[in-house]
Amino acid sequence: METDKLIKKLTLREKCSLLTGKGVFESQDVERLGITGFKMSDGPNGIRDGSPAFCYPSACLLACSFDRSATERIGEVLGEECSDRGIKLLLGPAQNLKRSPLCGRNFEYYSEDPCLSGELTAGFVKGLQKNTGACVKHFAANNQEYKRMTVNNVIAEDVFAETYLSSFERVVKKSDPDSIMSCYNRVNGEYVGENESVIDGILRDIWGFSGIVISDWGAVDDKIKAVNAGLDMEMPPNPSNTEKLIKAVEDGIISEAAVDKCVKRYLKALEKINGRKRVEFNVEKAIEVSASVAAESMVLLKNNGVLPIDKSKGQRIGVFGEFAKQPRIQGGGSAHVIPLFVNSPIDAMQAEFGAESVAYSKAFTLDGEMNNDLLLEAVNMAKTCDICVVFAGLPEIFESEGYDREHISIPQNQIDFIKALKQINAKTVVVLSNGGTVETEWDDCADALIESYLAGSVFADAISSVLSGRRLPSGRLAETVLHGVRDSSAFPYFVANGSTAYYGEGLFVGYKYYNAKGVDVKYPFGFGLGYGDIKYRSVTLEDGVIAVELENVGKYDDREVIQIYVGYKDGGARPEGELKDFVKVSVPKGERVKVEIPVLNEWFKTYDPSVKRLAVCGGSYEISVRRNAVQKVAFFAQNKQPEHLPVYDRNTEVGVLLKTAKGRKTVTEDLKPYLCLAICGNFNAEVNMVDGETDSPMFNQIMKNMPLRALCNLTGGRFSEEFMNEIILWLNAEK
Q1: Can you tell me the mean pLDDT for 399-420?
Q2: Banded model confidence at residue 133, pLDDT cuts 50, 70, 90
Q3: 264, pLDDT greater than 50
Q4: Active-site residue 216, yes or no?
Q5: DSSP string, 285-307
Q6: CA-CA distance, 704 to 681, in Å (whole number)?
Q7: SS3 of the chain: helix, strand, coil, percent, to 5
């Protein structure tokens, strides 16, 4: 039956009932009209429905893949498992920005960068929606757990658009998710789920989102405002709010047409979500895909030649740490699944290298307390080993949904043990398991360091294969590793007292701040090593295409991540470079590979307040090819015209005029003498101006920052109000 005809058959009570759940994880139905709801489940790294399920690598690790196809493959097998269980909508992926390393839920989030986060989330959604629906969360700026249900995030308009919304925009436009979950928090005084300008305005009208918006569980404060804003479904079921909505329609407080809009979207979503055919889940496929993706996503931060471990040498390998027996594979809260299986890394390493070659010692406990007997026993065993592999990291209690971290250090007893190995000159490999980034100031005691984050059920197989070289690590850091948490760009503002969080760092989140401020970091965003040795032989930009030639001169195959950054060079408080694209490419040992990357108009978009959206505002830019956020390989100057002309007025700065050919002509031919009088005190000053630019840096800067009205004041009225208005009218004539 057509949606409009079906809506006419629904009573007001039935319509309002459809705008909340039937059960905690079920949507509503109307049996008399054949309307059947759907079953949901928490995610995003596995199904959380009270029964054992496959535990997939968490987003904190997937993000390090820098590989859209990797997240798509994980999404696809997870979607198959959902389909097999009758789950029609998975509540995930989560892709809020890692504003601070202290956020307790960072293990669920992808990155500190919106480009990387958005691109990889889009890949995950594409894979997932081959077999089940996706609910992308938490829209938007859910960046802390402290007071998350009431906190008011005060964010500048341009920062909100470019940093906290743009990743969601990528997902909407590139993967067409079935649904989006609105967050708990407020932004600039209003709960996002009740903000019409954000949901109906930005999400639907500007981005073209066609799915349904579902509230986070218990997030609705004002049901009437939420429906008016375009929030389609409140979760979990709330009969009292349904009654409030019915009465509000009957009393004329809200129109029935507003309810009908939400109902229509829900019915259309039902058709799509329930229309997918059931597929069978293949656990062997899930194991292979997950192990492969987990291994390639692991980040080799340091390697002094000890990795990979050569099996043929028959070396004795000492394995240390409780995580080697009981690994940390996932985070806590709504993402926590009951795993189908959890293999032991020590068992996997004995299978990989031979049981007789691998010995184990507990070395330390996870409670952080020093145990001298364990330490002494482990050090004595280490003296008999050729290589020591320490499984270290954060105990589960350190990070979870619901609360934020107090620091970013691993327990001191783990650090003390690593230092003890250094004192006996042991060759030491440290494998980290953690959901959020940690300090590694002790890494001078390690010969090799692997960041494995939370790899899910396949962690044991993935890490043993990386240590042996059977699989090759090629991950890159999706977040910066700092010397200390006080270096964080958000540190002065994060989790402020009271119910207001000020986003005072603005656009300068993560590496954008560290680069701008010159902050020395331990390992930069985008950093990662491999077992091969890849060289950049040439980088060119011709006819709108960046061509990169790579050569692997090492002994092992490897993969490189080519990272493209763009910086705006016309002044203003903007980052010197922002990630705009990335390409991961395989380079076999001894071979050369050439990669071509087209320059996209999207790279140059920033927030344009005149149209309230991202647009190319025009000006001078630098495109740089980098290996990580700080290591440039090559850079190129670019000039871009604005996508549209701004609306000029008396407060328009001369620098804005210089962004268009018409404006530059006006400055050069009409405004030059008045600018000379205002800046130099002489109407006929000898200033050589060509196409709006002079050879005087001082003159240029003063001119660019001068509003048109100031010319009236600074020339004693010789630049008259009448002449200024004529120029403004002429500049705006083509609009």
Answers
A1: 96
A2: very high
A3: yes
A4: yes
A5: HHHHHHHHHHHHH-EEEEESS--
A6: 17
A7: 35, 20, 40
Token pair, residue 413, equals 């007893």
Distances from the Cα of 229 to the Cα of 35, 218, 682, angstroms? 24, 17, 57
Tokens for 476, please give them: 């890159």
DSSP, res 106: G
Instruction: Specify whether the CB–CB gap between 231 and 193 falls below 8 A.
Output: yes
Place of tokens 């025009």: 618
Q: Among residues 42, 113, 178, 216, which one is catalytic? A: 216
Domains and CATH numbers, the chain: 38-233 (3.20.20.300), 284-517 (3.40.50.1700), 534-640 (2.60.40.10), 654-731 (no CATH)
H or E segment to which residue 3 belongs: helix 3-9
- Residue 526: how many CA atoms within 13 Å on its side-chain side? 29
Quote the CA–CA distance of 232 and 221 in Å, as a whole number.
14
Q: Is the dihedral of CA 605, 608, 613, 615 positive or negative?
A: negative
554 burial (CB, 10 Å; 0-12 / 13-18 / 19+) is middle
Amino acid identity of residue 336, one-letter, is: H
Tokens of 516: 């701008």
User: In angstroms, rounded to a whole number, what is the distance separating the alpha carbons of residues 431 and 181?
Assistant: 35
Encode 583-628 in three state secondary structure. Answer: EEEEECCCCEEEEEEECCHHHHEEEECCCCEEEECCEEEEEEEECC
What per-residue confidence (pLDDT) applies to 647?
Answer: 85
The Cβ of residue 572 has, within 10 Å, a number of other Cβ atoms equal to 9
Residues 6+ apart with CB under 8 A from 192: 139, 140, 141, 182, 183, 185, 186, 198, 199
Note the pLDDT of residue 497: 65
Host H or E run for residue 552: strand 545-552
Phi and psi at residue 408, to the nearest 5°: -125, 30
Separation CA 359–CA 707 (nearest Å): 74
Alpha carbon distance 523, 414 (integer Å):
20
DSSP 457-517: GGHHHHHHHHHHTSS------SSPBPS-GGGSTTTTTTT-STTEEE-TTTT--THHHHHHH
State the virtual CA torsion across 177, 181, 185, 187 in degrees, nearest 10. Answer: 40
* Closest to 152 in 3D by CA, of 197, 112, 104, 195: 195
Positions of E strands within 155-277: 179-182, 186-187, 190-191, 212-215
User: DSSP 3-state assignment of 663?
Assistant: helix
Query: Using one digit for the tens of pLDDT, what is the confidence trace for 306-328?
Result: 999 999 898 999 999 999 999 99
What is the C-alpha to C-alpha distance for residues 205 and 261, in angstroms, rounded to an integer? 14
The pLDDT score that the predictor gives to residue 735 is: 47
Tokens representing 360 are: 């184990």
Hey, what are 581's tokens?
A: 């694209």
Q: Which amino acid does the sequence have at 460?
A: A
Which tens digits make up the pLDDT trace of 451-505? 999 999 999 999 999 999 999 999 999 999 999 999 999 999 987 667 899 999 9
Look at residue 459 in the predicted model and tell me its pLDDT: 98
The β-bridge partners of 231 are none
Q: pTM of the predicted model, to two decimals? A: 0.94
- The answer to whether the CB of 98 falls within 8 A of the CB of 510 is yes
Q: pLDDT for 572-617, tens place per residue?
A: 789 999 999 999 999 999 999 999 999 999 999 999 988 889 999 8
Q: Please say whether the beta carbons of 529 and 485 come within 8 A.
A: no
733 has which bridge partners? Answer: none
- Chain centroid to CA 430: 26
Contact 634, 626 (CB under 8 A): no
220 touches 274 (CB < 8 A): no
Whether the CB-CB separation of 712 and 721 falls below 8 Å is answered with yes
**CA dihedral of 112, 113, 117, 118, whole degrees rounded to 10:** 150
With CA atoms as reference, report the closest residue to 272 among 130, 106, 444.
130
Q: 665 φ, ψ to 5°? A: -65, -40
